[in-house]
Amino acid sequence: MSRTLLLSTIIQFSLATAHVILSLLQLMAAFTTSASAANQYFTNPGGNELFVSGFFVYVVNTFAQELLLIWRLYMIWDRNLKICIIPLILWILHCSIASIAVSGFIPATATALSRNLHSYGLAGWGLETGVNFIASGGIAYRLWHVGRRTAILTGRLNYKSSLLIVIECGALITTCTAVMFTLYALNKPEGLVGVGAATQITVGAE
Fold first, then answer.
1. How far is 35 from 150, CA to CA, in rounded Å?
2. Which end of the chain is less packed: N or C, by CB atoms within 10 Å?
3. What is the C-alpha separation between 204 and 196, in angstroms, rounded?
4. Residues 6 or more apart in contact with residue 114 via CB below 8 angstroms
């Protein structure tokens, strides 16, 4: 278990660091770009290698975070694979759809609100929210249920701090994703701006 957590930590912190570097390069490029071109950065990001690379790092980091969360669900339910079936199906769908969404930014003609890209982006964030909500809820319920059973013997609710941490982390990631989803659903490219913060929040919450 400790090796799995160590490996996941190394991977996610490496991805978060890579994203910070790409973000820094984007900021440096902004100083050499005209104001009008800078305003189009998130509305017309097609063909922008730094943007596509940063978005790719974000989705891979999200995949890793979700897989770790599902693994925790699996472990806390005594290695019961059945409890993980729905989150795993949603995770696979999310990986596929989010990858298609990122690849949609590669053509130079792509915009943030291109029809297919917009649809895949919303579907991806919706599935991400589903994975986090179901897996975090499953872990929280298990901790609450076991805590109530042991409370009969100890006279107090055990695992309360762990339960609160799971709820807080799940709520943090889900809220961040929900904000980006809502902005993007309202056809506001500002939803893409949150990707930078979401990458770091994903690592911090885990």
1. 62
2. N
3. 13
4. 46, 104
User: How many CB atoms are located within 10 Å of the residue 84 CB?
Assistant: 20
Closest CA to 170 of 119, 133, 143, 196: 133
Tell how far CA 94 is from the center of its chain: 10
Calculate the CA dihedral of residues 18, 19, 22, 28 and round it to 10 degrees: -120
**Which tens digits make up the pLDDT trace of 140-195?**
898 888 877 777 666 676 677 777 778 778 888 888 888 889 988 898 877 887 78
Q: Which residues contact 142 (CB under 8 A, 6 or more apart)?
A: 76, 77
pLDDT band at 63 (very low <50, low <70, confident <90, very high): very high
Q: Report how far residue 116's alpha carbon sits from residue 5's, in angstroms, rounded to the nearest whole number.
A: 36
Q: Bigger pLDDT: 168 or 55?
A: 55
Euclidean distance between the first and the last CA atom of the chain, given in angstroms as a whole number: 15
Longest CA–CA span in the chain (Å) reads 68
Q: Mean of the per-residue pLDDT values for the chain? A: 84
Q: For tokens 């029809």, what's the residue?
A: 115
Q: By CB neighbour count within 10 A (0-12 exposed, 13-18 middle, 19+ buried), where does 185 fall?
A: middle
**pLDDT for the residue numbered 206:** 65
